[in-house]
Each structure stands twice: as structure tokens, then as C-alpha cells.
């Protein structure tokens, strides 16, 4: 794991905790035992763009708190495919005006395991919109869940092969 990246995560935007409403204040207690969603993403090799996007959008604290969340995490390959589709560089995606909204479209309240997700027709996301679920397919094929139930102290991560766009 890149120590500089971890240090950057710890020092970013204490005010973002309030962004997700009900998360608490910047002085909230640290998550219970174990790695947070952010820690898991930083330690993995396939979420570098996601980690950079979360940092750029100022959502690190919100995804590191005590609040239980479920994250649908696009892989680096998913971000690269979106960049190719839009005919831009991956770095350009990190500068999108609606980056925060896009990222919040990948997060829902609560700790939702795979069975809870694939059996729900829709899931309300933190940006206020809903995604459609058809088994492991999300939003009519925008992404497919390719790995499930990755545990973190403050939630669950499901890996997806596409970037969901609100």
C-alpha cells in the first residue's frame, strides 16, 4: 500500500462527513474494528481510479466513518472503459463537475449482502436516485456485479465491471 496515499486519505475534508447526512461530525468515533471501506479500496490493486476519485470528490471521511454502507465499486478497468467510451482520458473523469454525484450513485445505506442486493428490484443510492437490479446486472447492463460481500468494518463492497451513471 502507498503510504502517501493513505496519509492523504486521513487528511482530506473532515467536512465531508456531514455531506452524507446523518453520518455525524468530523469528531465521530473511529469505525469499529478492522479496515474501513476506504482502507480496503486503498489496499486493493484494482481500485486506484476509484480511490483517486473518492479523494478528488472529498468523500474519504464519509466512507471511513461508523455509518454502515454498501459500495458498488467499479474497477480500474471499468473506469478505463468509460473513458474510452467518452473519448477522454481517465484523469479527465476525475475532473467531472458531477463526480461526487456519480460516486454517491455507487453507495447505499446499510450493510447489504449479495442476497439482499440481487433480490431487490431497485436500490436507493446516496445521491437520492435509484438503480435497477436484475440479478447481478445493474441499470440494464451498465454494470455487472463480479465479486460480492467484501467485508469492511463499516460496510460491504461489491465489485462491479462498469461505472454507473445517474
Percent of residues in beta strands:
15-25%
Helix proportion: 25-40%
CATH fold node name:
FAS1 domain
Structural class: alpha+beta
| SSE arrangement, N to C | HHHEHHHEHEEEEE
Strand order of the largest sheet: 2-1-7-6-5-4-3
Q: Please indicate the count of domains.
A: 1
Number of strands: 7
Measured on Cα atoms, how large is the radius of gyration? 15 Å
Description:
There is one protein chain. Helix content is 31%, strand content 21%. With 166 residues, the chain is α+β, with helices and mostly antiparallel strands. The protein has one domain (3-160): FAS1 domain. Strands 2-1-7-6-5-4-3 form a seven-stranded mixed beta sheet.
Short key terms for the protein model shown above:
alpha+beta, disordered N terminus, seven-stranded mixed beta sheet, 7 helices
Nutshell version of this structure?
The chain is an alpha+beta fold.
What's the layout of helices and strands?
Blueprint: H1 3-10, H2 37-43, H3 48-57, E1 69-74, H4 76-86, H5 90-93, H6 99-104, E2 107-109, H7 114-118, E3 122-124, E4 130-134, E5 137-138, E6 143-152, E7 155-160
Parallel strand pairs: 1-7
Antiparallel strand pairs: 1-2, 3-4, 4-5, 5-6, 6-7
Amino acid at each position: 500500500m502507498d503510504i502517501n496515499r493513505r496519509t492523504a486519505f486521513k487528511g482530506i475534508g473532515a467536512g465531508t462527513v456531514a455531506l452524507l447526512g446523518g453520518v455525524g461530525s468530523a469528531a465521530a468515533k473511529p469505525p469499529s474494528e478492522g479496515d474501513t471501506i476506504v482502507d480496503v479500496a486503498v489496499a486493493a490493486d484494482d481500485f486506484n481510479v476509484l480511490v483517486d476519485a473518492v479523494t478528488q470528490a472529498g468523500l474519504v471521511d464519509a466512507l471511513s466513518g461508523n455509518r454502515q454502507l454498501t459500495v458498488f465499486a467499479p474497477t480500474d478497468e471499468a473506469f478505463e472503459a468509460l473513458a474510452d467510451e467518452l473519448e477522454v482520458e481517465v484523469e479527465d473523469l476525475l475532473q467531472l463537475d458531477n463526480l461526487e454525484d456519480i460516486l454517491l450513485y455507487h453507495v447505499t445505506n446499510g450493510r447489504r449482502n449479495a442476497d439482499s442486493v440481487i433480490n431487490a428490484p431497485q436500490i436507493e443510492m446516496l445521491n437520492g436516485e435509484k438503480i435497477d437490479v436484475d440479478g447481478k446486472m445493474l441499470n440494464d447492463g451498465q454494470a455487472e456485479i463480479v465479486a460480492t460481500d467484501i467485508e469492511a468494518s463499516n460496510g460491504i463492497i461489491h465489485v462491479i465491471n462498469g461505472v454507473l451513471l445517474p
